[in-house]
Amino acid sequence: MKVIAIGRNYIDHAKELNNPIPQEPVVFMKPDTALLKDNKDFYYPEFSNDIHYEAEIVLRICKEGKHVSQKFANTYFDAIGLGIDFTARDIQQKHKEKGLPWELAKSFDGSAVISPLIPKEEIDDLKNLDFSLLKNKETVQQGNTKDMIFSYDDLIVYISKFITLRKGDLIYTGTPAGVGPVVIGDTLVGFIGEKQMFSCTIK
């Protein structure tokens, strides 16, 4: 399986990082070694001094798809979860300044927290879904999927033009405003609505 992630998919987040509003989805990849499951601790890597959390809704792809049409896109995922796209902001900034890819800032081991997944049939309204992230019991991010620049279906259509989607692939759909740094000792807890989805302690 592969992890496909989307950058700058909420206007307020793009603005907070002084990035232009994208006209097409910004796509990058994480390897499967990035996944951090089962409420495991996140170990602060030695190569960065500025790791940021980015909470986001995650889709699970349920069948193979290439050049998926818009009207069928919603049939290509069967469950959603909540994740964190940990980002080494210092490395990302250095690479952006040089016009280099920022994969190393996004794709390191443990950089993709993933919650248990919920079958989409159990969600009342996928397009109007509240989610939030608490750091040390204080809310730092609040988002709603209605504020996405590119919808789930848009992302599936766009990605599948370039990359064949396969069963079990995960799509991290982008983060709302409120991203920020973590330090050793912090605890991050993610919610979809009122349901706690994960807890992750920084070690």
TrEMBL record:
Location of the Fumarylacetoacetase-like C-terminal domain: 2-181
InterPro entries: Fumarylacetoacetase-like_C (IPR011234), Fumarylacetoacetase_C_sf (IPR036663)
Record-linked SUPFAM superfamilies: FAH
Name the UniProt record assigns to this protein: Fumarylacetoacetate hydrolase family protein
Any Pfam family matching the protein: FAA_hydrolase
GO molecular function, one term: hydrolase activity
Keywords: Hydrolase, Metal-binding
Organism: Sphingobacterium kitahiroshimense
Metal-binding listed as a keyword: yes
Superkingdom of the source species: Bacteria
